[in-house]
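Posted in: Structural Biology > Protein-Ligand Complexes

Title: Requesting predicted complex, coenzyme A in pocket

I'd be grateful if someone could produce the 3D structure tokens for the following input. Sequence and ligand are given below.
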Amino acid sequence: MTGLESGQAAEYVNHFGKGYATEALRALLPVVFEFMPRAGGDGTGFDYIEAGIDPENQASRRVLEKCGFTFYRVTKQDFNHPTKGLRDSAWYRIARPGTTLELSHVQHNT
Ligand SMILES: CC(C)(COP(=O)(O)OP(=O)(O)OC[C@H]1O[C@@H](n2cnc3c(N)ncnc32)[C@H](O)[C@@H]1OP(=O)(O)O)[C@@H](O)C(=O)NCCC(=O)NCCS
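-- Reply #1 --
Done. Output follows.
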């Protein structure tokens, strides 16, 4: 299959709003943190995960918030959407369990 056909797209849409994206992301997060090396003093490793979404996508925003992500910042016109052209991105972050975003050296925009 090279593309999503209209019938399949309709079936796909019918599954929105049932908690599937939230459930999948919640399951994925501990796995990523387990296999991702912790941040080291030498600049290697990671203590947070960052997600970028379209700022107008309320469903994506809600999924991230339900999974514990917090808003970090907006970057301007950095995503070239195939039909909408250049779009802003909203970035969210979540810290490794046992750390905080501040400890992860995140600088929140005020
Ligand atoms: C974004 C997407 C992955 C979410 O998947 P999903 O399985 O529907 O998400 P969930 O059901 O886990 O959660 C969606 C949440 O957003 C909320 N939501 C959906 N549309 C909303 C809207 N227009 N305004 C506010 N909240 C909205 C739902 O009510 C739900 O929150 P709740 O549990 O508090 O009621 C899915 O809608 C999708 O694939 N959309 C098309 C592609 C897309 O938009 N990709 C992301 C690009 S940034």
